[in-house]
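Project channel, design review

CF: Before we commit to the Nonomuraea endophytica constructs, I'd like one complete example in the thread so the newer folks can see what an input/output pair looks like. Taking D-alanine--D-alanine ligase.
RD: sounds good, go ahead.
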Amino acid sequence: MSKPRVAVVFGGRNSEHAVSLMGAGSVLDAIDRTKYEVIPIGIAQDGRWVLATGSQRFAIEAGELPVVDTSGAALALPADGGSLVAYDPGSIPVELGSVDVVFPVMHGPFAEDGTIQGLLEMAGVRYVGSGVLASAVGMDKAYMKTVMAAAGLPVGRYVVVRDRDWRLDRDRVLKEAEELGWPVFVKPARAGSSQGISKAHDRASLEASVEAARAHDPKVLIEAAIVGREIECAVLESLGDDPPAASRPGEVQVQGGQAFFDFEAKYYPDQMSLTVPADIPAEVAEELRAMAVRAFETLECEGLARVDFFYTAEGKLIFNEINTMPGFTSLSVAPQLWAASGLDYPALVDRLVQLALRRSPGLR
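CF: and here is what came back for D-alanine--D-alanine ligase:
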């Protein structure tokens, strides 16, 4: 019998383009080629789909972030879920065959936000990770917090800044933000990897921070600062009918002198540490794991997710966010949490592909 064909898709039209490539490089290294036929596909920053070549770079080199190499053959995915088609100007299109599973190692808008999931649903192609609704809600931090609060999870105080509000009623927005107390954190509502996030200590820096976030997304979130330790937990769907499983919680600490867990702390060497298991009371760890699974099920996630919390000095757990396609290099937090919980990176990649293969396209 032929091996299942897995298309590992990476890149995309957003500021997390490079992060996607770094994760895809790890997946391509780890996936079992004796078990699967693998097709690496890049989505360039201008939206073109290309077949990756041997010259594709997946790692940061000399401080330079990787980008999709567009020298490979252009690709198209028919809307009927048929064979991938490779084509170049002046050449006859070539069918590459059908794909059994797409592994979208992608983050941010036009990727993790339900858009590529919707495309694959329309084409009738199975894929790794959450569906359209969970992906969209998980990407939009404002709606995410609304949904989680409705499910009984404790969330911090925040203000949503929409484009019209900022342009026409800025003073009201700034006043509402000031009522949160200083400092505040300002972030794009629909971005990840700490892109566009800054810390504001007064009105002047708040205005500058909102403008910086708006460079990534016209919708912005202003959050009250929460003093606490950052504890994270990964959640994984069961291969059978058992409920999702939660990893051992881990504590993230910044080591590079940054004011918070920013892009450099996440993706450059020696900028952060992860302690697994986190040094918290056993009953708190169990409560946190139960809350992580509740967040996963509330959003009706599939495949995997990473759920982030703050643990305060008063012993309270506060939900921060859920990531439906978390950073996925072998050294990223979610894979490390699972490795410390007994599931190494190659096994995690295999589990996610197997989950996708068992899932029927369409409504479920």
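RD: helpful, thanks. The longest strand covers residues 229-236.
CF: The chain has a mean pLDDT of 91.
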